[in-house]
Design a protein that fits this description.
about 425 residues; alpha/beta; Transferase, Pyrimidine Nucleoside Phosphorylase, Chain A, domain 3; Pyrimidine Nucleoside Phosphorylase, Chain A, domain 2; Aldehyde Oxidoreductase, domain 3; binds uracil; thymidine phosphorylase activity
Length: about 425
Amino acid sequence: MLARALIERKRDGGRITPAEWRTLMSQYATDEVPDYQMAALAMAIYFNGLDRDEIGALTDAMLHSGAMLDLDHLTMARVDKHSTGGVGDKVSLVLAPLVACLGVAVPMMSGRGLGHTGGTLDKLESIPGFRTDLSLARATEQLERIGCALIGQTREIAPADRRLYALRDATATVESIPLISASIMSKKLAEGLTGLVLDVKRGSGAFLPELDRGLALARTMIALGADHGCPVVALITAMDRPLGRACGNALEVEESIMALRGEGPPDLMKVTYALGAEMLVLAGVATDRDDALRRMEVAISSGRAAAKFQEIIAAQGGDPKVVDDPSILPQAAECELYLAPRDGVIAQVEPRAIGRGITELGGQRTKVEDGVDHSVGFVITARPGDIVRAGEPLATIFAKDRAGVDTGVAALRRSIIIGEEAEPPLPLISHRV
Ligand code: URA
């Protein structure tokens, strides 16, 4: 009865009280409220929004629908990074070991790829043996021992959000700032953090492409963090082109390993260092962002960051030799250069079309239950603004067979647009909130 009354009230522009949110979400987590009622409520929220207090109450209700990591006994600061997602965004793979090797605990809980964006869990699982399904007890033990755990949202964490997020995905109600903020922050607050850094993407490949919506999302999540005594800093970064060159699970792991060895592409390093600097300052490990940058550069040049990645991989059942020898990652059977079809300027490297191309190659899911071919994807060397000649290599396609190569060629024709001139790309890092 409660659910029906709340749907009606929200449909008509009314407010839901904190006690009502708590009852509703705990009933939803235990299957007492059916999906069809929650779908109707999500749609009412999509159209009528939630005020600031309701967003806080919904976040709390989802957070308390499950367990939390209890890390108060750790002497180290606990800081995580969350990205709103994109194509080629492998920052987490570089950042987690880099920040952890500098004395910050990083309890990083990530998601799987869905739609055109990739997911950190899928990338990590291309490392032979790597397990992301750690229990909370095991993740806590690993954090105490080596300062980092790279895990998925367990069944214990924010179960109401877990169920609601899947439902929103199926009912076209994901793109609501109140719902996104509450969803992300309920999981992040369950990690027991002392600080959080957000990478909010903008541009055609972002979840919310418009800058004003990205800023609104960032400000809402910062306020939710403040309610829980968790300082949050957000950077707005570009997703009008892929980040780095590699797009596809195993290919991105390889590029991340190169980054940890000091050979990462400049755009990936710039975003990683900017987010890492915020994490180290929030943790109190660095005095300011310049100090943080120096520490990160030394961690990479000395091999400490790469060694920490090996330690994390070994702790989670993976083969740590991958850091010295990335050729043990799954390899695609076919590998072919994609050549410029004509002379001109690279006007666009469109991330959504690339993400869809990876899905067509089998490297990302269309449904949660789909499997993933970790080996496939693209390495794209062409950047917007480059002047190219017909026949010049722009990218490499990695596919499981010849038909896959043809699929990859078609996807790159749609993604890499050659014209007479290029629009200036978005600034890589445009705002700090
Ligand atoms: N990621 C989440 O975890 N939740 C959302 O609502 C959107 C992105």
